[in-house]
Design goal:
The chain has 76 residues and is of the alpha+beta class. It has a 3-stranded antiparallel beta sheet, covered by helices on one side.
Amino acid sequence: MIRLTISDSGSGMGEATLKMAGEPHFSTKTNGTGLGLATVRQHMERQGGGLSIASAPHRGTNIDLWLPVMSPAFAE
């Protein structure tokens, strides 16, 4: 697997919000659809990878995208 980490230094999320992050239709924004992280997670899992989120209030958020490595036989 290849891990790609995206980090920010924003306000972060508390435990309750973090548990809901990535669920379809959950958004912390009043005008958001809540489909972004859920769609990315679903796509990553279909490819054999994954997505994990770590966050804490006032410490920002880290999102790890786990990408499967393509086998050399597949690349030919």
